[in-house]
Each structure stands twice: as structure tokens, then as C-alpha cells.
Amino acid sequence: MDSLSMWEATAGKRKKRPTLVDDKHCDVVIIGGGFSGLSTSYHLQKMGHKTIVLEKDTVGYGASGRNGGELLTGYHGTMETFAQKKGFETAKLMWELSLDSIDLVENISKENGISCDLVRQGDIRPAYKVSHLDRFKRDQEYLAEKLNFHGVSIIERSEMKTELNTDFYHGARINERGAHFHPLKFALGLADAVEGLGGMIYENSEAVNIQRDSTSKVIITTPKGRVIANEVVIVTNAYAGNLNKTLEKSVIPVESIMIATEPLTEELMQELIPKNRAVSDSKNLLYYFRRTADNRMAFGGSGRAFGKRAQRMLFDNLREGMVTVFPQLKDAGIEYRWGGKVAFTQDFLPYIGQLEDGTHYAFGYCGKGAAMAVMAGKVLAETISHPDRVNNPLKKENLRPIPFHSQHSKGVGLMKFYMAFQDKYGK
Ligand SMILES: Cc1cc2nc3c(=O)[nH]c(=O)nc-3n(C[C@H](O)[C@H](O)[C@H](O)COP(=O)(O)OP(=O)(O)OC[C@H]3O[C@@H](n4cnc5c(N)ncnc54)[C@H](O)[C@@H]3O)c2cc1C
Q: Which Gene3D superfamilies match (predicted)?
């Protein structure tokens, strides 16, 4: 699903970056020019390491230039569950890392003068079912009592109109730390910042082969050149090809699609989402939406289709979903339709780690990577620069391919079918 995204159409003129030719040397070569890769490079350059980023297409071509731009806290699951699975101290660090990730995006934007329409008004998770609101309340109690975090509040259905002008939901959880931004403007600004620090970014430079020589140098081959480096980082996330089998078979790519309306009036947008928060609901096949700087509604949801006709139907269904949530938008024209791949892992947690051959990686943000991928880049840079000093709660040991990975496409289809059933008939 490669139609022009609204972000691409509104990001302004792109700087053309070179393609890699001949041999180049650096300390760390980074494969993937999304948030994870650019942030790894940015932080390594700041620590005095010479880096090269290789991007198969152009900066932000993957999920980083296509997402909803919602900067959200937390993970796919509750902190209480993570504390049970991973121990309380690890869960606490995970929570802090997720809060810090949004601060990190804001600080990078400020320090580098990246104008990416960042709005820090919090995020809201409306409850699709009454039982979801009960779950939010338990969550809020856990965060306050155990993690001493008091930035979450709950509103009942009767108060919903102060947040969202819709009857679709049964109340909501609000987190004051959330934000939203223009993701591609941020990616392009971060790329400029990397170059300002002396890092090199090569576009249209797909890494097609990785080898190690007898001196432990890593040699990355692209169609027209090579990079020779001390360390390699692979951050291709859901866009991983067959460059590294273990990484490719550890990630489950899932399609998500978005539509954006034509620019609407300030008054209407103010009426729909008065506090201009980032919204992502609690449906299993969720809707996520937000206002844009030019007063469009950007609305996302689940996507998966083969063939042009099926794709059109998915976008029509998404529009129908938008109008069900906000009947006020029934006459709003849709100007953009696009999609991208979200990376899931087997246990729905992001992984940051190192393969047995020394390759560093980070992936699998499960739809919550706009801020976390930027943080993962910082953690990777710190791990490479000061391996003994890093306390990384998302550290993955012994990454192994998912069994029957080749069947994942069927699995995702079945899972989505089950989720839709749960949304319709579950409690
Ligand atoms: C439609 C959509 C909506 C989303 N909405 C949100 C949201 O609102 N909030 C949120 O938190 N998260 C959201 N996400 C998820 C978020 O965008 C991702 O988690 C995040 O951008 C991941 O960044 P990344 O750098 O790891 O991966 P990517 O941005 O996908 O970057 C990987 C890059 O690697 C490149 N690549 C692949 N193979 C090679 C190779 N061999 N050589 C060189 N380059 C290669 C690709 O071209 C790509 O540019 C959304 C995702 C999608 C698709």
C-alpha cells in the first residue's frame, strides 16, 4: 500500500541524499533510515562515533514516515502484567523508559529546531466497552499505587463530551504525558541533525549482504558500494527483508492503514477533539485518530488486503468507521489514503539486543514506536558506546526465530478475524 501519505504531501520539499558508491569506512553502520536508525546515529555521533546510515529507499520510507504521529506511553499490555512476567523492577524501568521516550522526542526537536508540529496535550484512550473502562481503572490504580505515577485520569461516559464529541465510547483514560506530531517532518529534521553532527546518510542504498572479515570488521554491501565498519546495527523493523534470517523471522509485519480528510474548519476540529489530544481506542482492531496542524482529521485502523479492489474496500470501511465515531464528518472529503507495516513480536514487547555474531538490533514496537523507536536508538547508542553502563529493561537475550514464521500471514488473518469477533460479541 504505497499511495502518497498526507505526511509526505505536507512535509515540504525533501533534500536529496546521495546513493552509496565505492568503499566508505566508519565506526558504526546502521541499516534502516527510520526513527530507530536515525536516533542511533544521532546519539552515536553526539558520543563521538563516526556513523553511516544506509536506507533502501528514502529517509522515513518505512513506518516512521507513515504513522499516526501519536506519541504514546506504555506498551501493548498493562504494567501489572509486565511486573508479573518480568519482575517489578524491570516493569518500573520499562514504564520510566516509555515516559522518557516522549520527553526525548520533544528535547531532540527543541535542541535541533525541528519544526514538526509537536502538540503535547496528552493522549486519550476511549473505552469501546464498559469492561474496558473497568480495566483502565485497575490500571490507573496500579500506576498510582505501585509506580507512583499520577498523570493518568479516568472519565466516565457522561463526561466524554469534554474530550471527544461522540457517543461511540463508554468513558476514557487520559494520560497527560502523551503528544502528537508530524512524523515525517520529525524524521527529516532528525536526519538533518545527524548530518549536522557529521553523520552520513545514504538513500537508495539497500544493504544486500553482511560479512565479517578476519579482523572482525563488518562489511556491508549495497548495489553500488560497500561500508566497512567496527559495528553494525540493523533497524529495519517490519520492513526487514532477508538480510538477516533471525531478524526477519522474529518479526510479524501487520498492515495498518490511514485516511486524512481535506482541511476542515478550526471550529469543527475544536468541537470534535476539544483538547487536541492523540486518540487511540480500546477496540481489538483499534481506531487511532488526531487533528493535524492544518485541521484535517487523520484516522487510522486495521488494514490487510490483496488486490486493488479489496484495498479500496478497506479504505471505504475505515471512512465508515470514522463517520460512525464522528457523524459530523459525513460530508468531509478524503484527500489521502495510505498504509504501512507495523512490527509485532511474539510477546508483544519491543526487543533491543545483540545477535551472537555481534549485530545490534531493535524492533517490534507493536504500534507504539513513534517515541519508543527514538528511545531505542538512544539505548542502542549507549550500549555500543558504554556496554557496561546500560540498564536496558527491553534487553532481549537469545533471540530465536518464531516457529512456523512462514505461516504468519495466515496467522495474522485468523487473529484479525478473531479480534473482529471479540469486538462485536465479546464483553
Ligand atoms: C500506518 C501506521 C500507523 C502507526 N501509527 C503509530 C502511532 O500513531 N504511534 C506510534 O507510536 N506508532 C505508530 N506506528 C508504529 C511506528 O511508526 C513504528 O513503530 C516506528 O516508526 C518504527 O521505526 P523504525 O525506524 O524501527 O522502522 P521503520 O520506520 O519502518 O524503518 C525501517 C527502514 O528500514 C529500511 N530498510 C529495510 N531493509 C533495508 C535494507 N536491507 N537496507 C537499507 N534499508 C532497509 C526501510 O526502507 C525503512 O525505511 C504506526 C505504524 C504504521 C505503519
A: D-Amino Acid Oxidase, subunit A, domain 2, FAD/NAD(P)-binding domain
CA of 168 to the centre of ligand 1 (A): 30
Atom of ligand 1 nearest to the CA of 280: 8
Q: Whose CA is nearest to atom 51 of ligand 1?
A: 67
Report d(CA 362, CA 341) in Å as an integer: 16
Q: d(Cα 390, Cα 379) in Å, to the nearest integer?
A: 8
At 405, the pLDDT band (50, 70, 90 cuts) reads confident
- pLDDT for 307 equals 56
Distance 37 CA to ligand 1 centre (A): 10
Pocket lined around ligand 1, Cβ cut-off 6 Å:
31-37, 54-57, 61-64, 66-70, 72, 206-207, 235-239, 241, 243, 256, 258, 288, 300, 339-342, 363, 365, 367-370, 373
Ligand 1 atom with minimal separation from the 59 CA: 49
Q: In whole angstroms, how far apart are CA 3 and each of 39, 258, 339?
A: 26, 11, 8
Selected residue with higher pLDDT from 307 and 314 = 314
Asked if the 6-415 domain carries CATH number 3.90.1070.20, the reply is: no
Q: Taking the domains of the chain in order of start, what are their residue ranges?
A: 6-415
Instruction: Give residue-wise pLDDT tens across range 252-302.
Output: 999 999 999 999 999 999 999 999 999 999 998 899 999 999 999 999 998
Centroid of ligand 1 to alpha carbon of 342 (angstroms): 7
Alpha helices for 18-87 (secondary structure H): 35-46, 79-86
The three-class DSSP label of residue 243 is coil
CA–CA separation, 15 vs 273, rounded Å? 34
Please provide the average confidence, as pLDDT, over all residues in the chain: 94
Higher pLDDT, 420 or 102: 102
CA 370 – ligand 1 centroid, Å: 8
CA distance 239 to 175: 30
Give the pLDDT confidence score for residue 184 in this predicted structure: 98
Q: How far is CA 399 from CA 343, 350, 392, in A?
A: 15, 12, 16
3-state secondary structure of 246: helix
Reported as a single tens digit per residue, the pLDDT across 347-396 is 999 999 999 999 999 999 999 999 999 999 999 999 999 988 788 999 99
Residue of 58, 102, 181, 237 to test ligand 1 pocket, by largest number of atoms within 8 Å of CB: 237
Partners of residue 175 on adjacent β-strands: 123, 152
Percent of the chain residues past pLDDT 70, beyond the cut:
95
